[in-house]
């Protein structure tokens, strides 16, 4: 997969045009409706403008949900909640990685991708193609959807690593050289009760609010570090690019992305529903 360079990504993001209709909806639905018959998107054409609007709105939604998962995982930092904290952190990483790819002109859909065919501002071109065709010098050999996604993500962002700080380059590099480490660990914690309880036991023995996040045990600490680094890097690009769309207007908030996160995520408190559950049945 080929991504934009930083100047070209800035141009792509800053050229957002609030197109109505299908561009306001799901990127996956837009792909199914338009890209299966028209696989080249050339700047200046109506399809390119519509796709750019749809893709950048998709980026903003992913940024919002990544920040939300980051905030909400903090509420799960207790032994019984630590396995789901891990899953929440994993999905935060997945959301923000999709946002990062989207700002640089790429999207991954199961067995197809959109990536960059031409970089130059004013003459940009994207292509919709099947994964593993002649454009891939190193096609993914993974079959699982999330496995294939992370393999392609790390290959795509390799060109960014030399340009960013070491802590960000580390988050753009597979853990222990294994591109599917994140999804493999998520599956272990999420689907194996022994693994989940073992994480809870390790959390119980090591967690300290005073030294957080350094007190997070093992894979939980590693995954949290990946999420924080990806968030910081991706939001720094968003600020550099002057990134803004109207995607969050659906929540009734028309301010900037940063203001929406402040109001809708950090100022919004969960309802107190403890008395409305089956709690008495557990005792």
Task: Explain the overall architecture.
With 283 residues, the chain is of the alpha+beta class. It has one domain (6-250). 51% of the residues lie in helices and 7% in strands. It has helices at residues 6-14, 27-35, 46-73, 82-103, 145-156, 166-171, 181-191, 193-206, 218-241, 257-266, and strands at residues 40-42, 107-109, 112-118, 125-130. A four-stranded antiparallel β-sheet has the order 1-4-3-2. Helix 3 (46-73) runs antiparallel to helix 4 (82-103) and helix 4 runs antiparallel to helix 7. It is globular.
Q: In what range is the share of β-strand residues? A: 5-15%
Helical content stands at 40-55%
Count of separate structural domains = 1
Biggest sheet statistics:
4 strands, antiparallel
Pattern of helices and strands: HHEHHEEEHHHHHH
The stretches of 5 or more residues where confidence is low (pLDDT under 50) are: none
Shape: globular
User: Residue-averaged pLDDT, rounded?
Assistant: 94
State the separation between the terminal residues, measured CA to CA: 54 Å
Rg, please? Answer: 20 Å
């Amino acid at each position: 997969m080929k991504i934009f360079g930083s100047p070209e990504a800035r141009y792509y993001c800053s050229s957002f045009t609030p197109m109505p209709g299908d561009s306001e909806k799901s990127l996956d639905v837009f792909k199914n409706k338009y890209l299966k018959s028209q696989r080249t998107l050339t700047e200046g054409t109506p399809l390119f403008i519509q796709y750019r609007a749809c893709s950048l709105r998709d980026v903003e939604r992913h940024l919002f949900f990544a920040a939300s998962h980051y905030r909400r995982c903090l509420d799960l930092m207790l032994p019984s909640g630590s396995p789901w904290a891990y899953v929440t952190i994993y999905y935060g990483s997945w959301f923000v990685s999709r946002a990062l790819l989207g700002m640089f002109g790429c999207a991954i859909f199961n067995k197809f991708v959109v990536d960059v065919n031409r970089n130059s501002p004013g003459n940009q071109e994207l292509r919709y193609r099947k994964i593993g065709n002649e454009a891939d010098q190193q096609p993914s050999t993974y079959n699982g959807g999330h496995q294939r996604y992370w393999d392609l993500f790390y290959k795509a962002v390799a060109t960014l690593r030399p340009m960013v700080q070491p802590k960000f380059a580390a988050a753009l590099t597979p853990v222990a050289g294994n591109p599917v480490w994140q999804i493999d660990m998520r599956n272990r914690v999420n689907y194996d009760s022994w693994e989940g309880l073992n994480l809870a036991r390790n959390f119980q023995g090591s967690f300290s609010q005073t030294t957080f996040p350094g007190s997070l045990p093992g894979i939980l600490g590693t995954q949290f570090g990946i999420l924080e680094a990806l968030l910081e890097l991706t939001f720094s690009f968003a600020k550099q690019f002057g990134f803004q769309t109207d995607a969050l207007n659906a929540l009734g908030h028309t301010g900037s992305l940063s203001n929406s996160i402040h109001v809708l995520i950090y100022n919004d408190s969960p309802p107190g529903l403890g008395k409305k559950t089956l709690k008495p049945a557990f005792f």
